[in-house]
Each structure stands twice: as structure tokens, then as C-alpha cells.
Design brief:
- The protein has about 375 residues and is α+β, with helices and mostly antiparallel strands.
- The chain folds into 2 domains: about 100 residues, no CATH class; about 200 residues, Cytochrome P450 (Cytochrome p450, Orthogonal Bundle), CATH 1.10.630.10.
- Strands 5-13-10 form a 3-stranded antiparallel sheet. It has a two-stranded antiparallel ribbon with strand order 1-2. A two-stranded antiparallel ribbon has the order 3-4.
- It starts with a strand and ends with a strand.
- It binds protoporphyrin IX containing FE.
- Protoporphyrin IX containing FE binds next to helix 8 and helix 13.
- Belongs to the cytochrome P450 family.
- One of its GO terms (molecular function) is monooxygenase activity.
- Its cofactor is heme.
């Protein structure tokens, strides 16, 4: 077994008679240690030479503070640099802002989903001028797909929170049962895709209902999306201020989760009334007020209105310690998909088509929303 180093850094094998070491074992160890330097595709990325196969760069600059070590790599080797950790394992240090975005951003996943939806509708429309499409069915599949695509991250987070080993290491009375673990996954799936598909469907409905607003949004998007295959970055999505207004206005008028429920853990006095412990306390977050039903995205640009908005006035993601965990994801998912879709299609109401808002659970349109969809040919 490999367990020590000779003074010159080469590998010594000890504590085992030479005769008992299989040559395949030596070959394997040699392969593991040499692969990163001579065969791995990462070997071409610039980085400092390795002089010690076991400690690798822990024998040199990795002994410094983390910030200093990575600063050294960035200055000497640029925005992407290779270094080696224990047992010669290659690591990549990333400091190029574009690459940082590529690693940390979920936006490409959402844009990809937008492109997928676009391709499906382009196929459906074919050579026709326009096509009547029931939009929510496919949008639901796309948002479920997104959960699947970001699943690796979610799954990691999930495993960290509820991982079987971690769960098993807890005292029995604190462990989650198998059913509880399964229900957490179901909550995550439902919370993560029913909400976004509902919001996206309502946004398209409002844009079809108000063609001027739709044109205005498309004009803003076209300034950034130079061609139909444009793959926007997070900064470009952030730049679209009218899109942000449409996102907020849709959630204001039709919050996908319209009712919040809490139970008081002890008797409370509210406005002079005694509320016994355990009473269901329901908070409706539907918009209220004179102008509440009007779809007017520009209101979000009014500085006076903006200054009055607080967590208790605009609650589509709730507030407090149990608020929505996926708020940021939903924000970029909706805006990415909507920008791709509005860049590529025009939407028009189907005269005489009616639907209802579901009264309980998620505020879905029932039986769905049919719209006329046509391609944007520029
Ligand atoms: C437009 C999209 C979305 C809206 C409007 C929304 C809204 C909400 C609301 C109102 C709550 C309830 C909080 C409370 O009871 O106080 C909630 C909880 C939650 N949301 Fe979202 N959400 C959205 C998207 C997402 C996404 C994309 C994910 C994750 C991928 C997600 C994950 C969760 C989770 C895990 C909870 C906590 C559930 C629980 O503790 O029971 N949500 N969301």
C-alpha cells in the first residue's frame, strides 16, 4: 500500500512484503497518480507543476490562506487554472466572471427550457399563420422538466437536508420516516412546478388580453435578443425592467398560492379578541383595492408606489421563516422562459373561450387557457 514518501517525493511502498503486492495494484495506483498529469483532458489547463504526488500542491502554495492561494493562481495563470489537491486530484480554480456565471447560474437551464417550448410550438404551428394552443398543458411539462434539470442541485440540497445517512445518524425520535421523506420530495416537486407553470400561463393570458403591453414587452426583449436563438445571460435578463414589471404584476393579480395558513402555538390577543391556541389563521394574498383588478405593469415603475411596497403588501412568495425556498429560482425561471417565448411568438385571445380560476390550492385556470399563437418572423 502507498503510505509514505521518499525524500525526493517519489512513492515508497512499505508495510507489505513486495512479493504480496499484485502488479495490477501497482499499475492501478500508478494510473490514479499519473492520469491527472498525462491523460486527463484537464492537463492542458494552465497551472503550476506538481512535484509531490501525494500532497500535490498542499506541499507548496495551498498551505497559504484560501484567498491568497487562489489569488496567486488567477494572477499567474489567468481566469481558469488547474491545481492538484491530495493524491494529485485535479481541481479547477475559476476567477473569470463569465465562467463564474456559467458555474453558478441556473439561467442557462431556464433558457434551454424556453427554447424547448419554442421548438414544440414552432412545430405545432408548422406552415400555418397561427394555431390555437392550450398553453398550460405543455407549460406544465416544461416546468417539471426544469425541476428535473436543476434536480442535481436540488437533489444535493435535499440529500444534505434529509439524506438517509444524516437522517439515520439522528436520535430515533428526531428521524423522518420514509413517508415523511417521500412527502418532502412531493412538496418540492409540486411547489416547484405547479406554481411556475400557473404563473407563466397567467402571464401569457394577460399579454394576449392586452396586445399593447405585449408589444411593449417584445420591443424591450428585441433590443437584447438580437436573434431568435439568443441565449441570454443573467445580466441581460436583469436588464429587462418591463419584463420584471410583468412578472410582478402577474403575481400580484393571480398569486399562484393565494392563501397562507398558520396556527398559533399559544393563545393570542388580536385587536382585542382572544384567539385560542391552534386556531387556523388564514391570510389571503389576492390583490385588494380600487385599482386591484387592472393589469397595469407600469405601476411597478411608479416611484411613489414602489416606496410603499413592503413584505406585508406584496406576498406572492409569503414572508417570514417559512417563505418560499424557490423564490429566486422562480424569478429567473419565469423571466427567462417568458423572454424567449415573447421573442418568438405573438399571442391572441380566442374569442368566446372561457375558463375559471380554480378556487382552492394553486390558482390554476380551469380547464386551461386556449390562445392563438403565431410566429414572430424577424
Ligand atoms: C411563481 C412561482 C412560485 C410562487 C408564487 C411560490 C410561492 C410560495 C408560497 C406562497 C409558499 C408558502 C409559504 C408559506 O406558507 O408561507 C411557498 C413555499 C415553498 N416553495 Fe414556492 N413558489 C414558487 C416557486 C417555487 C419553486 C420554483 C420552488 C423550488 C424549486 C419552490 C419551493 C418551495 C418550497 C420548498 C416551499 C416550502 C413548502 C413548505 O415548507 O411546506 N417554490 N412557495
Amino acid at each position: 500500500m502507498i503510505n509514505s514518501l521518499s525524500p525526493n517525493g517519489s512513492i515508497c511502498i512499505s508495510h507489505a512484503p513486495t512479493a504480496t503486492i499484485k502488479s495490477s495494484e501497482i499499475q492501478m495506483e500508478s494510473f490514479v497518480l499519473h492520469y491527472p498529469l498525462y491523460l486527463s483532458p484537464l492537463r492542458k489547463i494552465p497551472g503550476p507543476p506538481v512535484n509531490n504526488f501525494i500532497l500535490a500542491h498542499f506541499a507548496s502554495f495551498l498551505n497559504q490562506a484560501v484567498g491568497d492561494a487562489h489569488d496567486y493562481l488567477a494572477k499567474k495563470y489567468g481566469g481558469i487554472a488547474r491545481y492538484h489537491g491530495l493524491f494529485n486530484k485535479p481541481h479547477i480554480s475559476i476567477s473569470d466572471p463569465k465562467l463564474v456565471q456559467q458555474v453558478l447560474e441556473m439561467v442557462p437551464t431556464f433558457v434551454q427550457a424556453g427554447h424547448k417550448l419554442r421548438d414544440i410550438w414552432i412545430k405545432q404551428i408548422g406552415n400555418k399563420k397561427e394555431e390555437r394552443i392550450t398553453i398550460i398543458a405543455i407549460i406544465q411539462k416544461i416546468t417539471l422538466d426544469v425541476i428535473g434539470l436543476v434536480d442535481s442541485e436540488l437533489a444535493k440540497a435535499y440529500r444534505t437536508l434529509f439524506g438517509v445517512k444524516e437522517n439515520e445518524s439522528l436520535p430515533v425520535y428526531e428521524q423522518l420516516t420514509h413517508e415523511e421523506l417521500v412527502s418532502q420530495v412531493v412538496i418540492l416537486l409540486a411547489a416547484g412546478h405547479e406554481t411556475t407553470s400557473t404563473a407563466l400561463s397567467w402571464a401569457l393570458y394577460f399579454l394576449a388580453k392586452y396586445p399593447d403591453i405585449q408589444d411593449c414587452l417584445r420591443k424591450e426583449v428585441l433590443d437584447v435578443f438580437t436573434d431568435r436563438n439568443h441565449f441570454p445571460t443573467i445580466d441581460e435578463i436583469d436588464q429587462l425592467k418591463y419584463l420584471e414589471c410583468i412578472f410582478k404584476e402577474t403575481l400580484r393579480i393571480v398569486p399562484p398560492v393565494p392563501l397562507l395558513r398558520r396556527y398559533n402555538l399559544k393563545d393570542e390577543i388580536m385587536n382585542g379578541h382572544v384567539i385560542p391556541k391552534g386556531t387556523p389563521l388564514m391570510i389571503s394574498i389576492y390583490a385588494r383595492g380600487d385599482d386591484a383588478e387592472n393589469f397595469n405593469p407600469s405601476r411597478w415603475l411608479d416611484p411613489e408606489i414602489k416606496s410603499k411596497i413592503s413584505n406585508t403588501h406584496f406576498l406572492p412568495f409569503s414572508a417570514g421563516p417559512k417563505n418560499c425556498l424557490g423564490m429566486k429560482m422562480a424569478h429567473f425561471e419565469l423571466k427567462s422562459i417568458l423572454s424567449v417565448i415573447i421573442r418568438n411568438f405573438e399571442f391572441r385571445l380566442v374569442e368566446g373561450f372561457t375558463f375559471k380560476k380554480k378556487l382552492s390550492g394553486f390558482a390554476k385556470p380551469i380547464p386551461g387557457i386556449d390562445l392563438f399563437v403565431s410566429k414572430v418572423d424577424y
